[in-house]
Design goal:
Nucleoside Triphosphate Pyrophosphohydrolase, Transcription Regulator spoIIAA, seven-stranded mixed beta sheet, 8-oxo-dGDP phosphatase activity (chains A, B), homodimer, DUF4743 (chains A, B), alpha+beta
Chain lengths: 298, 298
């Protein structure tokens, strides 16, 4: 199958929650503090009744609400944490096997201060939006040709072991700034000195929403570009990455459709290639569908 | 109201077709050659019955189809053209007062060769996607600060007279390449020599969908960036623009929320500012909502 078609397929897979036949119409909207923050998948709904002090499910089962008896940020976060740890003990959901002890903020649409936090591994059980930050590290030769630094994930990573990744990337844990998180990941994963990482420029977001057997992954990745000097080489830091490659853009382009790439990282480099004119609308028939698929409204 | 909130409002207005209370749920899907190409608004539906040889409306009024008796591209285009000219004579729809004698291609989702063409002024009556091309012309000072060339539309323009515009922009008429259309608009509107215009780099699309009283505007603008030399000044060409300004980005940013800007051009410069890091996610709380609102799936 042609490259373009395979990219479209990847974008469809990464937005499977909005496809026909998904669990979307069986999910119930999830509210915290009066604000819609996610969707509860059908496999989670039957377990909420055990916690009447935490979840409020209306009679028509039209929506799930975190009990308004839970006052604020801390009280909500702690009450849900107790439930999630119980589910983890009971081995109720596979995703909780990947418990990280890393808290993600739960935000409403108004982008006011976060409403609560939630263990990272549990966010898919409530369809809560997750945020991350990804870096396109690239080199520009004197003739204008670009190459990108691509990492290969360690075999010990719990998710997507051994697959291709961006030069640096990570989830946005509670309380950390976006650029701050990026600089931290750059140092930890690729030994990029802070002075160099600080030069990274924000260039938008990539957003998508997919489902797997039990959960919903509504993710928004903040994207940064960093032009690195030709004499700089990222090196393995905390061991999350096993190796770095400097690849010409054409090679990265081909790899996007290989099953070798961690899917969301493939989207981040696709977005890079569109923004930098390496993919052109006169020669790529699905150009505008690529752009739309990379920026799903969450 | 704060700048960020006003930008959100602009994005909501430009995507009003997908907002609650829009005519969306009263529209019927429009098919040509078995492919979905648009939506017919409720105000247009009652007039289709007069043309049984052109439109096929099923009994349940669940969809409108261009008659399969119309063989190919030319036959379809001509049959619809006869209908539209009749409606124009009858002064049935205001939008047809702006008849341009300019044909737009009607495309299916597969991006195969176009299925037919349609008078530009009539596309909103069938919710058919329209494509255009916009240029961000900018200057980079030696200290890295950027300014943008902004045009002011002539008072004689039928749409948005006297409002701010990008350095060059235009609709994509049938049969023209995208870069080709851009170079042509650059020459006509701003007297940009072909050699300079050819340096413009594609950088994505901006897409949105709004409704007015009778029609649906589903539009995708191909976006190009062109860094122009500091000693170049665009000059008025065919009279569609009355004047050009070179504004620091901060001034352009403020103007985005003025009612002075042609709305879709304001979106194009907003996208530019995000891609070039002038708007940053750590300081703009609605950053990812901006990116999502600029790239609606059509």
């Amino acid at each position: 199958m042609a490259w373009s078609q395979r990219v479209l397929q990847l974008l469809h897979r990464m937005n499977s929650f909005h496809a026909q036949g998904s669990i979307k119409c069986l999910c119930k909207p999830f509210y915290v503090g009066g604000q819609r923050v996610g969707s509860v998948p059908p496999g989670v709904l039957p377990h909420l009744g055990r916690y009447p002090g935490v979840f409020l499910v209306d009679e028509g089962l039209s929506r799930v609400e975190l009990s308004s008896g839970l006052g604020g940020y801390s009280e909500r976060s702690e009450a849900l944490d107790v439930v999630l740890r119980e589910w983890k003990e009971e081995k109720l959901f596979d995703c909780l096997e990947g418990w990280r002890d890393e808290k993600y903020e739960v935000m409403g649409r108004s982008c006011d201060p976060p409403l609560m936090n939630m263990e990272r591994a549990a966010t898919s059980l409530f369809g809560v939006k997750r945020y991350g930050v990804h870096l396109n590290g690239f080199v520009r030769r004197s003739d204008g040709q670009m190459s990108m630094w691509i990492g290969r994930r360690a075999l010990s990573k719990p998710t997507y072991p051994g697959m291709l990744d961006n030069m640096a990337a990570g989830g946005l844990a509670a309380g950390l700034g976006i650029k701050e998180a990026l600089v931290k990941e750059c140092a930890e994963e690729a030994c990029v000195p802070e002075r160099l990482a600080a030069r990274a420029q924000p260039a938008g977001t990539v957003s998508y929403c997919y489902e797997d057997g039990t959960g919903i992954f509504a993710e928004c990745q903040f994207v940064y570009d960093l032009e690195v000097p030709t004499d700089f080489t990222p090196t393995v830091g905390d061991g999350e990455v096993q190796e770095f490659y400097l690849w010409p853009l054409q090679q990265v382009r081909d790899a996007i459709v290989d099953s070798d790439f961690k899917p969301n990282c493939a989207l981040v480099v696709l977005d890079f290639m569109i923004r930098h004119g390496f993919i052109q609308p006169d020669t790529e028939r699905y150009y505008h569908q690529f752009v739309e698929g990379l920026h799903t409204t969450l």
